[in-house]
Amino acid sequence: MLKIPFVSFEKMHTEIRNELDEAYNNVLNKNYYIHGSECAEFEKNFAEYCTAKYCVGVGNGLDALTLILRAMNIRCGDEVIVPANTYIATALAVSLAGATPVLVDPDIRTFNIDVDKIEEKITDRTKAIIAVHLQGRAADMDSICAVAKKYNLKVIEDAAQAHGTRYKGKKVGTFGQAAGFSFYPGKNLGALGDGGCVVTNDEKIAETVRILSDYGSDYKYHHIFKGVNSRLDELQSAFLNVKLPYLDKWNAERQRIADCYLQHITNPAIVLPLQSDDEFEHIYHVFAIRCRQRDRLESYLKEKGIGTLKHYPVPIHLQQAYADLNIPKGSLPVAEEISHTILSIPMYYGMTDKEIDFVIQSLNDFSCE
Ligand SMILES: *Cc1c(COP(=O)(O)O)cnc(C)c1O
């Protein structure tokens, strides 16, 4: 039986195995592991890739967002607008900075924040909006920035799922004042462990994030903030330097697989995601379908040997960790609807045509009754 995992790095890493080995050996030969030339090189490369002035490597995507908020002096008593439909890290970053996340329901077609619902959540405590390019689809940055401008709010991009995504032809990461990226292995650009970075055109934010991420130290043993330890190490930076030049090719392959899915999945019980287009590019970090009979579809695919995941089965406001927000069930109906119906199907560089066809055929053969 054909077994198709939800995600596999096998082909990706086999093709560049020699380069990864070489990167590892280089770091070991240099015997230098934190804040060396590999990290500096990656920061330069990734800033250039995003057409941003600055990139600061940090330990992971959650820290990237948290440190941006801290660098903006967002803190206890402040509110930050966050999409209700996102990975919990977006909200946790706000909480870790000491502020309160204010959740806004998504648009069911894009899964991204419903821009028309932002204004009603703005109060005199609101300081910023975090725009998430969920699943790899660009959020509506013009509209988000217009609301932010009207109320004098900062805009932060959570680009953890959107390395290389373009909005109106320009890569995400510089539409707001700063953006956080994650290099968790499963992201479109993944390290071989944890990693993240902050991208910005604002020198002050870049400098403050750098200091905060290194124990609040501006020079050795001199501490100006109560910082954290969150650094992108030399080994992960070296691997990322190898992988970055392939990112566009890997994203293009994801788009090709997505086009196959979009063209050939014809089961009327399945709602397909919106296609990537010139304004709102989609790099398919996940390819998420919706189905009324989601749980049945999930077990049906499992029996067929097809791996799936739910992004995400429980929305943030219904998580125990956020019971203190006191947002009752039913208050964010679109996020809740998505959590009940969404299912992500296999999507990774290296899927064979046979595997893609098998996923399509299996979905088309699924019967609701
Ligand atoms: C992965 C992810 C993060 C957090 O990144 P980590 O590197 O796992 O800390 C933040 N936001 C979104 C939308 C993510 O998908």
Structure report:
The chain is an alpha/beta fold and 369 residues long. The chain is built from twelve helices and 14 strands. The protein has helices spanning 10-15, 17-30, 37-49, 61-71, 88-96, 141-151, 203-213, 234-243, 247-264, 294-303, 333-341, 353-365, and strands at 54-58, 79-83, 100-104, 126-132, 154-158, 166-167, 170-171, 178-182, 196-200, 217-219, 222-223, 270-271, 287-291, 342-345. The chain has a seven-stranded mixed sheet with strand order 1-9-8-5-4-2-3, sandwiched between helices. α4 (61-71) runs parallel beside α5 (88-96) and α9 (247-264) runs parallel beside α12. The two termini are 25 Å apart. The model has no long low-confidence stretch (mean pLDDT 97). Pyridoxal-5'-phosphate binds next to α4 and α5.
Q: Structural class of the helix and strand makeup?
A: alpha/beta
Strand content: 15-25%
Number of strands: 14
- In helices, the fraction of residues equals 25-40%
Rg over C-alpha atoms, rounded to the nearest angstrom: 21 Å
- Structure annotation, total helices: 12
Distance between the termini: 25 Å
Report low-confidence residues grouped into runs of 5 or more.
Answer: none
Order of helices and strands: HHHEHEHEEHEEEEEHEEHHEEHHEH
Task: Give the cofactors and ligands.
Answer: pyridoxal-5'-phosphate
Mean pLDDT: 97
Global shape: globular
Instruction: Give, in spatial order, the strands making up the sheet with the most strands.
Output: 1-9-8-5-4-2-3
Task: Please summarize the sheet with the most strands.
Answer: 7 strands, mixed
